[in-house]
Amino acid sequence: MAGDSGEGGGGEQQNSRTGWGIYDRLKKVPRFSKDVTLRGRKVDVPETASESATRRMVEDLFKQEADAAEPLGDFVQIERNEITHRRPKRQEEAEITVCECVIEQENPESPCGDQCLNMMTCTECTPGFCPSKDLCRNQRFQRCQYAQTKLVKTETRGWGLAAAQDLKAGDFVIEYCGEVIPVKEAFQRAKAYETAGRSCWYLINLNGGEYIDSIQSGNLARFINHSCDPNCETVKWSVLGEERIGIFATKDIVAGTELTYDYKPTWYGGARMRCSCGATSCTGFFGTKSKAFQIYMREGAPFGKDAYTWEDEDERLDVEEAELIDDTEDDAPLSAFIDPTFIGKRNRTGHITNAKNAGTVTKVTAEKSPVSGGTGTSPKKEMTASVEAQPAPVAGPSNNPSETSAPVSRRVSILKKDKLKAQHVLGRFKESSKKKAIKAYVAPNSTKPEAQADKEPKKDQESRHSKKKVRFDDDEPPGEKKLVDVSMFKRARTVINELLLSEIPESYPISEAACTEVEFAQELAMSTESDLKKICEEIGPAVKQFYRRDESTSEEVPAPRNEEEKWIEARCKHLRNLLNFHHSIAWTLCRLSLTSSANPTMHARNGCTSPIVIYELVVSSIRFFRWIR
Ligand SMILES: C[S@@+](CC[C@H](N)C(=O)[O-])C[C@H]1O[C@@H](n2cnc3c(N)ncnc32)[C@H](O)[C@@H]1O
């Protein structure tokens, strides 16, 4: 259990890593009170909201453990990720995205709800910058605003987490907290856990370079089990500059239902774990869709040599009966090809073995695929068509909406959000004001710099130290806040890299809506590209003047500055911020192209800008960005 010291006795102990920990068996949770001595007198500083949320969670945990027959195991309860291998990111002021929410007196739901631009892009508002101030509802990770949950003991999967209140699709359930570790260490730990015979793992991928491990430190999210037909999903959020993972409901969930999400596990060889989620669409083992597993299923080597199954004596399912997946079907839920009324699994010969009655073999034929009550067309096409005609999942006896429509209708809503965001970015960055900015402030022959030389740095200084900490774009009317987001640009790189690394299926159904989206993205790409070029050409000379090469180190260093140069620096900063708009645009269009098509071949077939072009565009932005910095 959390913070177990194993020393007996009772009381509180300060955990060096996580603040207050809990260690005794008296189930006493210390209040997060901080006794501060002020001029010789002790002052009691009250708990913050997040501190009391954590305390309540820990108390719950104790209570549930006390009720339970089995202990939960040792782990330290934490309320936010622990990052030890690097410095936690500090959000620069220029990186903060400020939404445009307006508080409407008559509408309590108005500030930072579904229409909040930050909310739409999975970014939490930054306290002190959000126009909704304390009414902001988009700081759920920061304030630990979790749904009510309770621990449950499952029959086959150890502990699990269940909803203790009714939830709606899209509701935030809980953050997945743990120790943030580099990928290499994650692999080493996974190996070590396996070697030690531990089949219960708590590793989750955070980003291209890091994992979260909640084996030693974590919160209740670590108890959520995997299901092949889950009712929740993980979503990456940007919180104060750091990436964090949240668990969100994907369906309406009734209180008492176990919460699950798809771990999307990858198998790299070694131990194979049986999945006991019990879903109709269950693939039998963890990681059956991963390449290594599929290669092993087809060819045995090279992963087969050290492969074994946990609990070998367990005869519920043999690995030979695990499903062999056609790579080109990656995007379609497996259930789309399986009769939902038939509980079973496909084996390597395309037969289905009934899991309830192992040994019985039934051949699945194309006609048997019942999705949308199909005719002669392929099940996959039918699924796409039915989704376009019917974005909201509709229950029906002949198809299984929870397995087919729901994920795709979600994709549709993501598209809408992206389009909105793109329009917003474009609207804020009008061609005319941009040209004016460049001409007025940067053109080397301009007369304006002298005239404004003494005023500008002061103004910049003022805004830097302004108490409100909101930065204004000089070209925009006062009150218009600047929208700058560098983290988006980093995300763009990750997304594009993932895309480039991913396999391209040969054919993919294309919807008209998707084509429109891609065309829209193409327009954005083209205007972004020309904007970038123009800015490069115009401010290049000014920036170069500002730096000189240090002979000893051959590095570019800022030259000694006079007022005018200081002014140029301020202008460069200003332009860098403008450039961040371009990153946002590039990022948005990448997401547009990705979410709309999920497949680059589509672009080629429709003569649209290919992701490679977008990629190059973003790479050139990166180079330019570094250079100007
Ligand atoms: C993040 S933990 C979930 C909590 C865990 N059940 C516990 O008692 O602490 C992940 C582990 O739970 C087990 N597990 C989760 N989902 C499962 C499933 N569908 N089938 C079998 N085991 C599962 C596996 O041992 C897995 O490594």
Automatic annotation (TrEMBL):
One of its GO terms (cellular component) is nucleus. The keyword Nucleus applies. Gene3D superfamilies: SET domain. Pfam families: AWS, SET. InterPro entries: AWS_dom, Post-SET_dom, SET2_Histone-Lys_MeTrsfase, SET_dom, SET_dom_sf. Residues 142-264 form the SET domain. The keyword RNA-binding does not apply. Residues 451-464 have a biased composition (Basic and acidic residues). GO terms for biological process: methylation. GO terms for molecular function: methyltransferase activity. Residues 397-407 have a biased composition (Polar residues). Residues 94-145 form the AWS domain. Residues 1-20, 364-410, 440-481 are annotated as: Disordered. It is found in: Chromosome; Nucleus. SMART domains: AWS (SM00570), SET (SM00317). Residues 1-12 have a biased composition (Gly residues). Keywords: Chromosome, Methyltransferase, Nucleus, S-adenosyl-L-methionine, Transferase. This is Histone-lysine N-methyltransferase. Residues 271-287 form the Post-SET domain.
